[in-house]
Each structure stands twice: as structure tokens, then as C-alpha cells.
């Protein structure tokens, strides 16, 4: 038990008095005066010594008290909890910090098992920690969740050391550190890491991280999928080894170029074996002390490049369409005088000059055929609307074959079997012509190198309800007209056959095809309620069948002959066209058939003339495409002066006007150049007779 300085002094005095009494009981010696003086001197010296010792004891006692107080502060107010446990894990002593951490008064902790404060799910961790402390007789630490008195949890780092041998009954001492904030931070870091991992592997682009020697350090799942390996298997390998099985970086490698300047770099790399093109970007991950790792991102842009190519192809087709319209307009304007003057010349021939008449008829036939070709050019470039009506397909096929015969090389033989009795179909003749030409062109390309036989047949077939094609190919039982186009060319593999009707799919080399022909043909056939089938064998050839339903032909009733209006007249007509050859033709027609004709090569001059005497005019014939003012605008201004004036609007081709728009503007007749002389004269007389009937 520790005594205070005052208590220690009293105890010392009591011991001294007891000692004195024992001394006085002994026999007393007789002291001389000198002896007495010496004894008194010694007593005073001893007294002073005792007083000095007593002062030293008091100072030592005071310092001990200060040390004890300092120890109390350090022990109880330490930032970590201290506790002493018995071998059974009972708390024998704990500081204030430990009590505060556990939310229990310090006095209530003693004699309680420490395990009562360990979270149930972490009890096994704690017991293993205790066992290792006792078995190893060395320091050990673990992390567990602790439960406060109020039920709240916190993470604690337990650092234990075995008790010393002199501490009888002491099992071990624990240092309790609240590491909740660190654990939360670690969990957040782990969460962020997991999110990064998921994001890294969810990205479709191939991502690899390389060290300074271009070894792959890390790769995402997209990289593993592309290269046929697990991402972890790529680590340690050179990127160019796994990407191209090469011994050196790829030509134009962006990482090599980026390392030269330590800046990002991007380039496109084509992989021959994969038949894919990748855009690869390399980004430096610069460290504070110089060059670090690089991250490389590769994206498959094969489809994008193909889409760009398709877009360019579409722009080309659009440009071709615009060009076709311009060509059609100019070509039809050239054909119109040829056709018109040939017909006028034929009218002037004497009946006995049959030879010259036959020559002129050939000119007329050639001009009309050229007109049809112009219409086909416009149809191919999608410049004219689709018009379906019943027609005999054998005439269209024969027309297409006549062109093919003169264009096919001599090493390709054309064999045709066209039935003229197969009947009619409901379709657009121009589109049907397009189908024939597309299929024959594909057959030509298949035999272009080695040659072969191109067979084209047209027959009527009947598909009954029990026909296998009804079940397998989706046919409806009906009568069909079957167009077959076959070749003895290179043929196709089964995998290619399944894709040939996909838009932009092509097996031809650059410049040989757009990949749209068969897709367009398939769409046309489907719009006619038909079917198109294909059979091909590699090295043997390909056969296409186009089935379009046969339609019933109208009964050939003899119509009552109606008297045709006489083509001649005496009316006053103004004709306007910026082409002098055409206005000269109109002048010749008017003169030949008795009309009073006035022609202009300028629409503004014509409008000025009509404005002066609008009532003196019987008809206006105007071209559409002219400088300064087009024919549609001229017609509107003339109709504002003379609403009842008959007008014929002519055009070689124009995107601005058609028959419907012309009627909306009040124009009664719309003619496409080149038109036959009878078509013009008949239209004129009908309009004159109609006006007379209304009058």
C-alpha cells in the first residue's frame, strides 16, 4: 500500500521513539562534559541528515505521484484501447479509450468476456487469433467487427501480445484500434476497382495496357474474344505476336509512333487473316519520373468503312440519277426533231417511192426505240414512278436479249427459249427489263474469265397446292410465268447463296458491282406478288427462276370504230422552245397541216407577245425547261390572261413537273418528248374540239 509523505513521517517517528525506549532501558554510562558535548554534536548531525533524507524522500514521492498521473493519462487517454485478458479471455483491466470504444463504463468491463463484444459472424476470426497468440507465444493481429453496447458496429484492428511470466494469471494483452474509416475507404476502393473491372470488360472495343517493352500487362474481355484467348493468358505477350503472329510491331503501329513523341497517336491497321480493319489509338500513361505504360484501344471499323463505301455508292447513284435526268432531257430533245422530220418527210413522199418510205420508217423506229432506252435509263436511276399494268413479258425479254447479243463476248454463248404464248403479267415493264438485265449481267460476270453458256427461258407454269414449292418456298397455288436465267460459271457456296439478296452484299471485285442488283430485283418481284429462287453449285454454275403470277387478259372485243378528228386546222398557235431546231419543226408541222404558227425561242418574248393580244390566240405549246422562265411559270401567267386557253406542256424530262402537277396548274395536256406526230396532232384537235363543244 502506498503511504502519503505525512503518513510516512508519522510512521518513521513512531519507530524512532520505540527504538529510544529500548535504549533507555540499558544501563547508563556516566558521561564527561566533553563526551556530552560530542554526543550532542553527533545527535545534531544525525538529525540534519535525517531531515535531508526526509526531504529527499518527499521529493521522490512527489515525482512518483507525477509519474503515476502521467501514466494514468497515457494509459487511459491513449488514442487506442488497451486491455489485459486472462487465458480464458476475461477482461482484467482496460483503459478509458477501450471502454469508450465499446460504449461501456470502465468498471463494467472488468470480469466480462471480451468475446461478448465481437460480432457473431467474426467470432471464428477472433478465436483463431487467440489460439495463435497462445500457441505461437508471439504477437498476432486480426481485423474483426465489434459490437458496441448500443448495438452499433465498428471495425477494429486487434493487436495481441502474450502476457509476461511474472504476470501471474495474465493471458495476453490486446491493443484495440478503430479502423472503421480505413475499412470503409478500402471497401470504396474495392467497389471502384470492381466497377472499373466491369466497365473495362464491358467495353466493346479491344483494350490492352502495355508496359515499356510493349508487353501486354492487362487486357479486357473484348481483346480475349478477338484473339481467342482468356484475357489473363495475354499478359506478358507482345501485342503484335498475339494480334498478327508477327515478330515485330505492325506497319504504322500507333504505339511505336506515340512513343517517339510521348503523345497520343491513332492509325488504321488492316488484318489480312481476319479480313477486318481496325482503328488503333495509343495513349501514354505518363508517370512523374518519365515514360510509363501505354493503353491501346482498337475498334473494328470494317462495317463503318463498308457503310461509308455504300454511302459513297449511293451518292454515286444519286449523281447518276441527276446525270441521267439531264441526259434524258437533252437526248429526248435531240430525238424529237429526228422523229418529227422523218414523219414529215414520209408524208411528202409519192406513194410509189416505197424504198425511201421504208428508210424513213426505220428512222422513226430507231427514234422510238431510243425513246424507250431513255425511259429505261430513267427507270434504272429511279427518276420515274413505277407504273404497273398488264403486258406480255416475252416482248421485254426479247428486247433485253437483243441488246445482250451485241454486248456479250464471243466466248459466252447465249441460248434463248422464249415462249410468245405464255400470257401477261401485272408489273412495270421497265422494272421487269431491269430484272432481266441484272440477272444476265450477273451470269456474264460469273463466266467472264472462262466463258460458258447463258440460258434464258420464259415459260408458263402451274403450281398446284400439292407442289413442294408451296411448302418450301412460300408459293401460292397459281399460274405463273417463269423467267429462268442460268449460267455455267463459277457458282457459289451455300453460305454465299443465303446472302445474295442482302442489300450491298456482293462477291464481285471493286468496280464490278454495287451489291444492289439482286436486292432490287428481289424487291421488285415481291412487289408483284412473285417469288425468286436460286440454285447454285460451286464450279458448276447458277440458275435463277423469277415467278410472277399470270394475269387474265382482257377479251378482245371489237370496239366500234370512231371517226378520228381531222389533224389539220386553221387555228392560231404559239409554240415556245429554247431549241431552234424544235421551233423550226413546229413551224413546219403548222405549215403542213394548215395552222397559223408563231414560234419563239424565249419564254419572256412569248409572254410579251401574248400579253398584247391574248384573245387572238387559240393555243399555246411550250417546252418546260427554258432559261429565264420555265414552261410551267409561263403557262400560269398566260392562264391569268386567258383562263380558257388550251395549253400543251412538253418536256424531255424534268423533276419539277409531271402530268399531275401540270393539271393542277390548269394545263390540259402533258406530252413527253419525243412524241410522234400523230400524238401531237391528235392532242391538238381533241383540245380544239373540246373547246368548241364547251363554247
A few lines on this structure:
The chain is an alpha+beta fold and 695 residues long.
Question: What structural keywords apply?
Answer:
single chain; 695 residues; alpha+beta; Beta-Lactamase; 5 domains; seven-stranded mixed sheet; five-stranded antiparallel sheet; 22 strands; 22% strand
How does this structure look, described?
The protein has 22 helices and 22 strands. With 695 residues, the chain is an alpha+beta fold. It has 5 domains: 1-14 and 40-72; 77-178, PAS domain (Beta-Lactamase), CATH 3.30.450; 203-300, Beta-Lactamase; 387-551, Heat Shock Protein 90, CATH 3.30.565.10; 572-694, Rossmann fold. The strands form 4 sheets. Strands 11, 12, 13, 14, 15, 16 and 17 form a 7-stranded mixed sheet that branches. Strand 3 and strand 4 (153-162) form a beta hairpin. Helix 11 packs antiparallel against helix 12 (354-380), helix 12 (354-380) crosses helix 14 (429-446) and helix 19 (603-612) packs parallel to helix 20 (631-641).
Determine the structural class based on helices, strands and strand pairing: alpha+beta
Main beta sheet strand tally, sense and closure: 7 strands, mixed
For the record, what is the CATH homologous superfamily label of the largest domain? Answer: Histidine kinase-like ATPase, C-terminal domain
Just name the CATH architecture of the largest domain: 2-Layer Sandwich
The strand count comes to 22
Distance between the termini: 146 Å
Could you say what the CATH topology of the largest domain is called? Heat Shock Protein 90
Q: Let me know the average pLDDT.
A: 83
- The number of domains is 5
Shape: elongated
Quickly count the helices: 22
CATH class category name of the largest domain: Alpha Beta
Instruction: Tell me what portion of residues adopts beta-strand conformation.
Output: 15-25%
Helix content: 40-55%
Rounded to an integer, what's the Rg over CA atoms?
Answer: 56 Å
Sequence stretches where pLDDT stays below 50 over 5 or more residues: 509-515, 555-564
